[in-house]
Amino acid sequence: MAMIDVGGVRLHATLIPQRSRRPAGQAPMVFVHGLAASQAFWYAAGVQVLTGLGPCLVYDLRGHGKSDTPETGFGLDRMSADLLAVMDAHEIPRANIVCHSFGGMIALYTALKAPERVQSLVLADVRVRPLQQKLDIAVPAKALPPGLIRRLRSLGIDAGQISNADDGVDYLRTVARIQLAAGDEAGDLLSAIYHHPGLFRSRRNAQKWVQLAERAAFVDALREGDSFGAQDLGRLSLPMLILVGAKSSTLASARALHELCPTTVLREIPDMGHFFPMSRPRLFLRPTVRFLHAVNTGRLKGV
After folding, report:
1. Residues of the chain with CATH 3.40.50.1820
2. How far apart are CA 141 and CA 194, in angstroms?
3. Using CA atoms, how far apart are residues 155 and 260, in angstroms rounded to an integer?
4. pLDDT tens profile 72-92
5. Each residue of 144-186: pLDDT tens digit?
6. What are 121's strand-pairing partners?
7. Where does 2-130+226-297 sit in CATH, by number?
8. Model-level pTM?
């Protein structure tokens, strides 16, 4: 475990050594989590299994986990620079980058801007913003039971402001607010609105996200105009594994990216939603291990 100083911002990173007897020299794996998560996501997803293929580097994005929370620097350009700086600090010239959700936007931006640093990508349930502007996340307010609407109002949450065409920021903020305000009841409320019982594992994490999401600079950076477009993505030629839950709101992104990039492999995971790497790690690990082994051995045909 280490704190890496990147322009005065300390980023929390952990390098997990290779544990197998496979020959050394394979490109390490670097893991990029999504918004409102931390490197703990990857432990839940079974990162230890992947150390059989090589060393694994996990880190907390700025504003997340144990990393510092600066006032600015939450755009893709800065967060990509953070990723490269963490790699540099661990003397990793080139890596297989494994990512989830918003982490995939950081990884794709990095692959476009610094292709020599990225050997392959594993994109686990990533909304690719140029290909899918909004997510269909919530049950529409008009479809919620009146009793649930009244309960939300008593918690200071206006059900009418819960959009089922969200960019993800308001969604995460609402989830955090409900978890903070409703206590043990939060799971039932969130299941009724979003079809899952919650995301934040502690009050501290939920509170941190609410505070972060109240910062105009943070939200504006996340919602800034796309730093790359579909044409740029179409020029990517590195191997990419796209994993997506068949019931996930990011399914449209996955299919569009697969159509756009001939070097992608698409795997739709039946009956799974956005967080399947954490809730059902085997469904994430099996195709990931197979793909990365093929990348390392140069045997991608038929993966």
Report:
1. 2-130+226-297
2. 11
3. 44
4. 899 999 999 999 999 999 999
5. 899 999 999 999 988 887 876 677 788 888 889 999 999 889 9
6. 97, 240
7. 3.40.50.1820
8. 0.92
